[in-house]
């Protein structure tokens, strides 16, 4: 067996930090309603190098739509129209820096659980005669979101008839004769 002489030789190594390690892009959590798009701007590190590129995820949950602006990172997220209130989705946005380094930054969107607290539909009093129907329009908040649905009461006094238009809330009430 041969042996070679050994000797330690110092070598100077410089490790250059990547741009991904030098920057911290980020997004605020957002809420939206079923079927309604929400724009989520990149609000973390606003001093990113020229040439930084943003990409959306390869896959998103079924029924959701995600669009990422490649230049500024603004991410538009649209939940499905039948999304359940309280549903949360975290979408990874890939940030690619000019030096080739990358990082995934999460965008979190929650489907709002309570539109009812934001609106005040209502009705004015109406009068009629026995056996004669009267239409009572919904006159409260008239700027209701698309898809608002009106239902009548589950119980009404005996002899009375109540019919509610599910689209505009107009209620037809017929008292007993």
From TrEMBL:
It comes from the Bacteria. Residues 168-177 have a biased composition (Polar residues). InterPro entries: RibLong. Residues 20-112, 116-177 form the Long Rib domain. Residues 1-26 have a biased composition (Basic and acidic residues). Residues 1-89, 112-177 are annotated as: Disordered. This is YPDG domain-containing protein. It comes from Staphylococcus auricularis.
């Amino acid at each position: 067996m041969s042996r070679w002489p050994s000797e330690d030789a110092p070598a100077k190594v410089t490790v250059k930090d990547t741009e991904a390690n030098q920057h911290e892009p980020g997004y605020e959590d957002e809420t939206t309603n079923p079927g309604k798009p929400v724009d989520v701007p990149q609000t973390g590190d606003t001093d990113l190098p020229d040439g930084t590129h943003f990409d959306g995820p390869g896959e998103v949950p079924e029924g959701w739509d995600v669009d990422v602006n490649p230049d500024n990172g603004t991410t538009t997220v649209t939940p499905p129209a039948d999304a359940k209130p309280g549903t949360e989705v975290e979408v990874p946005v890939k940030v690619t820096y000019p030096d080739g380094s990358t990082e995934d930054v999460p965008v979190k969107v929650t489907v709002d659980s309570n539109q009812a607290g934001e609106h005040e539909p209502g009705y004015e009093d109406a009068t009629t005669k026995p056996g004669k129907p009267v239409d009572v329009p919904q006159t409260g908040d008239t700027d209701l979101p698309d898809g608002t649905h009106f239902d009548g009461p589950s119980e009404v006094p005996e002899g009375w008839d109540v019919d509610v238009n599910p689209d505009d809330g107009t209620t037809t009430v017929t008292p007993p004769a």
